Amino acid sequence: FAIAALGWFFTPGLLDLLGTPGSARDLALGYLRMLFVSMPVVMVSIILQMGLRGAGDSRTPLIFMGLTVALDIVLNPLLITGWGPFPELGIVGSALAMVIAAVTSFILMVMYLYRRDLPLRLRGSELRYLVPDREELRFIVGKGLPMGAQMLLISAAGIIVVGLVNREGLMTTAAYGAAMQLFTYIQMPAMAIGGAISAMAAQFIGAGKWDRLGEVTRAGLIVNFWMTGVLTVLLLLFDRPALGLFLGPDSPAVDVARHIQLLASWNFVLF
Question: Which residues of 220-237 are buried (b: 16+ CB within 10 A; e: fewer)?
Answer without folding.
Answer: beebbeebbeebbeebee
